[in-house]
Design a protein that fits this description.
Bound molecules: FE2/S2 (inorganic) cluster
CATH topology of the largest domain: Ubiquitin-like (UB roll)
Largest sheet: 5 strands, mixed
Order of helices and strands: EEHEEEHHHH
Distance between the termini: 27 Å
CATH class of the largest domain: Alpha Beta
CATH architecture of the largest domain: Roll
CATH superfamily of the largest domain: Beta-grasp domain
Helix content: 25-40%
Structural class: alpha+beta
Number of helices: 5
Shape: globular
């Protein structure tokens, strides 16, 4: 048995320990917001938080997260209580096809949780491994910077929230699970 926290809920799985975390979350827990892109840790579509760090889960065996706190896109915010970055994504009309966007949001939220006032270089470095075939990079940067500015004004902390069972689609903005 492997035990960990998924979106603040304790979970237990009895699976091949080499199963990538991405497939455990998508197929076992049916949380389909995190995407499979390359399967080689190169595109960022599968990014989740492991103990607050943005991690590529397509190459991370589930055995490696024993005792860890995992947050997937479904745990970042809820339709009624969006994470500030999700709100900024909407306001800046960031997504195009949407496929990469959950990974983009997870990388951006990990950055801001550690560094609420990142420089352009900080943003570029943190987001460097998240590929977007639709070329939404400039809008992503604008959205991150807008949240950074609002946080520095209000002093509000950025943290993750949510539950295991609530499925939020960052593109459609509803509770529909996509595949
Ligand atoms: S699917 Fe994991 S980095 Fe591309
Ligand atoms: S929005 Fe289409 S790949 Fe990024």
């Amino acid at each position: 048995m492997i035990n960990f926290q998924l979106n603040s809920s304790p979970v237990e799985v009895d699976l091949d320990p080499d199963t990538p975390l991405l497939w455990v979350v998508r197929d076992h827990f049916k949380l389909k917001g995190s995407k499979f892109g390359c399967g080689m840790g190169l595109c960022g579509a599968c990014t989740m938080h492991v103990n607050g760090e943005a991690v590529r889960t397509c190459t991370l065996p589930v055995s490696a997260v024993q005792g860890a706190a995992i947050t997937s896109i479904e745990g970042l915010g809820t339709p009624d209580n969006l994470h500030p970055l999700q709100q900024a994504w909407v306001e800046h009309s960031v997504p195009q096809c949407g496929y990469c966007q959950s990974g983009q949001l997870m990388s951006a939220s990990a950055l801001l949780a550690k560094n609420p006032n990142p420089s352009d270089v900080d943003i570029e470095m943190a987001m460097n491994g998240n590929i977007c075939r639709c070329g939404t990079y400039s809008k992503i940067k604008s959205a991150i910077k807008s949240v950074s500015k609002s946080v520095s004004k209000s002093g509000e902390a950025i943290r993750t929230q949510g539950s295991l069972v609530e499925i939020f689609d960052p593109v459609l903005g509803n509770k529909e699970a996509n595949s």
